[in-house]
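Milestone M4 deliverable, item 7.
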Amino acid sequence: MDLITTTFATLTLYLILATNRIFTAADETTESEEPTKCGENEEYTTCNLCPKNCENPFQEICSPGPCIKACKCKSGYYKDSEGVCVSIIACIVDNIRNRIPQVTERSDSSSANTS
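Output delivered:
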């Protein structure tokens, strides 16, 4: 083998091993770690890459990053705009509520008679 082929093979092997180590480290957990106390309709996970939420319930848009040890919504539940795990029906209500502009009272000066 020539020097270029050997160098390329070495770098390729290094990248494969380094990538494998990164993913292995992300999945490692020890028995002594105490899981976080999770809320209603939540469960603890050691790798919460793409949390399900009402804005993206089917995770069509997901940019996975490093594994995060956290509580996640149980199957069939999604985080609403307040961070609470709710059913898909509650998500629809939450999405509608967040898209409708808030109605504010206005003072109507034209109805006041100034005689």
